[in-house]
Write a structure and sequence with these properties.
The protein is an alpha/beta fold. It has one domain: Nucleoside phosphorylase domain (Rossmann fold). It contains seven helices and eight strands. A five-stranded mixed barrel has the order 3-7-6-4-8, surrounded by five helices. Strand 1, helix 1 and strand 2 form a beta-alpha-beta unit. Helix 1 runs parallel beside helix 7.
């Protein structure tokens, strides 16, 4: 039996593996993540969307933890598993319970984030939760989403941070360097984004350590 953890980044996958989950990496590619989830589905008993996210609610800052009550996508709405959700809330009392939005393209600009917040009520956005929730519903599996804020609602990501990832979830360094060479003025913002990502990943690791192996999933027997 396994708990599938839908992630976008290789670093998120390493944290998931440490928590006793089976990471499924999408690398920011919706179709790739959906296919890999199907390939890993055989002995799955539950699904979690795990990783960092962009902030939509103005009060949320880097390192804040969001546990999804629901996940919304384009014309999609998924409710998270009540029993597992209760365990997550109990062990992460400092977290925020709210809607998480899933989109296929990175929410790079402040205007996009404001629009998502206004139209969906979601407090955070990522590129995996809606795909993982859809897969879980199709398979009849319990689903939750645990995300840590990286870039806040007022933050626009620099171009280098938006370069497509490798299928492994690792950055394409040559593409990042090429973006920096074309626009060196983005360097301060890129460095800030790196600091925020490290802080968010540390917070995610702490969450997993507090939740214990399997993130407290009540369906492992």
């Amino acid at each position: 039996m396994s708990i599938l953890a839908a992630t976008g980044l290789a670093k998120e996958a390493r944290i998931a593996r440490r928590a006793g989950l089976e990471p499924v990496v999408g690398g920011g590619d919706a179709r790739l993540l959906a296919r890999r989830l199907q390939e890993a589905a055989n002995d799955a008993v539950a699904v979690v969307s795990l990783g960092i996210a962009g902030g939509l609610a103005p009060l949320l800052k880097t390192g804040d933890v969001v546990i999804a009550t629901h996940v919304v996508g384009a014309n999609e709405h998924y409710t998270c598993d009540a029993a597992w959700l209760q365990i997550l809330r109990g062990r992460l009392a400092y977290s925020c319970s709210a809607i998480i939005a899933g989109i296929d393209e990175a929410a790079s600009g402040v205007g996009v984030k404001k629009s998502l917040f206004r139209n969906t009520g979601a407090h955070a956005v990522d590129m995996e939760s809606h795909i993982a929730a859809r897969f879980a519903k199709e398979r009849g599996l319990p689903f939750v989403a645990l995300r840590v804020i990286c870039d806040g609602a007022e933050r626009a990501l620099p171009p280098a941070a938006l370069e497509p990832l490798k299928p492994s979830g690792k950055p394409r360094l040559l593409a990042v360097l090429g973006s920096v060479a074309r626009d060196p003025e983005q360097i301060p913002e890129l460095l800030r984004t790196g600091r925020e990502a490290r802080k968010a990943l540390r917070a995610l690791l702490l969450c997993c350590d507090l939740l214990g192996r399997g993130l407290g999933c009540p369906y492992l027997g």
